[in-house]
Write a structure and sequence with these properties.
- By secondary structure, the protein is of the alpha/beta class.
- Helix content is about 40%, strand content about 25%.
- It has 9 helices and 10 strands.
- The chain has a 6-stranded mixed β-sheet with strand order 6-7-8-3-9-10, with helices on both faces.
- A hairpin with a 2-residue loop joins strand 9 and strand 10 (about 215-220).
- Helix 3 packs parallel to helix 5 (about 140-150) and helix 4 crosses helix 5 (about 140-150).
- It is globular, with a radius of gyration of 18 Å.
- The relative contact order is 0.17.
Length: about 240
């Protein structure tokens, strides 16, 4: 569903991604872990060209988005739902209007259809009862679930999550992870950058360890967490577990 091939990204003289190859199959949940500054979020942002790759190819459902003209890029971007650390909700709009907006603007859906879809997606994340609330009336975990509903409402083929729980109080993290687990059960294809190691171990189909802008190793969670092959992976996981 998503294929990254020979991806490179440079900022000036600094190479932050080098020769990244990664495939995410339909319905798969792939978790990307690694130290801060290893290029994880940059790679994710390249997947819908929020960040312009320096070279390489990115295929979504078989189509190379690197070849897309600017007028086609927005429609291709709609195929990748993106959930960020921050929630980016419009504070002056109700929850349901936040979920409707991109549908009306980008997909040209009518108000009634957009609202029905918004309510379905809010129900999916357990927040239909908050449809008329304003974002400031919600907890951080609820706001992040609204952001997920907004992305889902656009019918993406792939969901990209960039540290979706890092801005949340620890007791609110579980509600967001539950939504992601439910999405996996429903067959959504997901690429997740996160420090939630317990969730990766429990829910991921595959874990990718990145360091220094390269994919160091990847495999099923039990292999990466239980028997990492690379010294850099072992060092990172021992540091993480000592801080847990």
């Amino acid at each position: 569903m998503l294929e990254i091939a020979a991806l490179e990204k440079r900022f000036g003289d600094t190479t932050v991604l080098r020769n990244i190859d990664l495939k995410v199959r339909r319905g798969e949940l792939v978790f990307v872990i690694g130290p801060s500054g290893s290029g994880k979020s940059t790679m994710l942002r390249c997947c819908n060209r929020l960040e312009e790759p320096t070279s390489g190819s990115i295929f979504i459902a078989g189509r190379n988005i690197m070849n897309a003209l600017s007028k086609d890029l927005n429609s291709l971007r709609l195929q990748t739902g993106m959930v960020f650390q921050g929630f980016h909700l419009y504070p002056h709009m109700s929850v349901v209007r936040n979920v409707m907006l991109a549908q009306v603007k980008a997909l040209k859906r009518g108000e009634a259809e957009a609202k029905a879809r918004a309510m379905d997606m809010l129900d999916r994340v357990g927040l239909a009862h908050k449809a008329e609330a304003m974002p400031t009336e919600l907890s951080g975990g609820q706001q992040q679930r609204v952001a997920i509903a907004r992305a889902l409402a656009l019918d993406p083929k792939v969901m990209l999550f960039d540290e979706p729980t890092s801005a949340l109080d620890p007791e609110l993290v579980g509600s967001v992870l539950k939504v992601m687990k439910d999405l996996k059960a429903q067959g959504m294809t997901m690429l997740v950058v996160s420090h939630e190691m317990g969730f990766a171990r429990e829910a991921a189909d595959r874990v990718v360890f990145m360091d220094g802008g390269v994919v160091v190793e990847q495999g099923p969670p039990e292999a990466i967490f239980g028997n990492p092959q690379h010294e850099r992976t072992r060092a990172f996981l021992s540091r993480v577990s000592s801080h847990a």
